[in-house]
Amino acid sequence: QVQLVESGGGLVQAGGSLRLSCAASGRTFSSYAMGWFRQTPGKEREFVPAVKSGGITYYADSVKGRFTISRDNAKNTVYLQMNSLKPEDTAVYYCGATRRTLYSGSYYFREQNYEYWGQGTQVTVSS
């Protein structure tokens, strides 16, 4: 069982930056693939980036070049550095974890493939 707690959300002006953190419980964090998703009211959860246990990363086209996912296995934490933020990045951001780490990249783009989720953190980007 893994518990995830996101933090770091807030209100920022367009063009600004935020760094989200997702702290995980448990001693096997390094073996999990971790992903960030975001959701706005009335819409499905949308993939943002993911990082596999070996460090391979995947990004949604909408955030490539602006967002960076990273992980610190010693701290059981995954980060999402968000730069050049746009109003359309406004959403609740969730981190997810899965023990299934042997699949190709597109597997990690799908919400249903993650086993554990945090409670989410709100990011609001004003124009």
Biggest pleated sheet: 7 strands, mixed
Query: Could you spell the SSE succession in H and E letters?
Result: EEEEEEEEEEE
Unreliable residue runs: none
**Discrete helix count:** 0
Structural class: mainly beta
Shape: globular
Our Rg estimate from Cα atoms comes to 13 Å
Average per-residue pLDDT, rounded, comes to 95
Beta-strand portion reads over 45%
Give helix % range.
Answer: under 10%
Number of DSSP-assigned strands? 11
Gap between N and C termini? 40 Å
Characterise this structure.
The structure is a single chain. The chain has about 130 residues and is an all-beta fold. It has no helices and 11 strands. The protein has strands at about 5, 10-15, 20-25, 35-40, 45-50, 55-60, 65-70, 75-80, 90-100, 115, 120-125. Strands 2, 4, 5, 6, 9, 10 and 11 form a 7-stranded mixed β-sheet that branches.
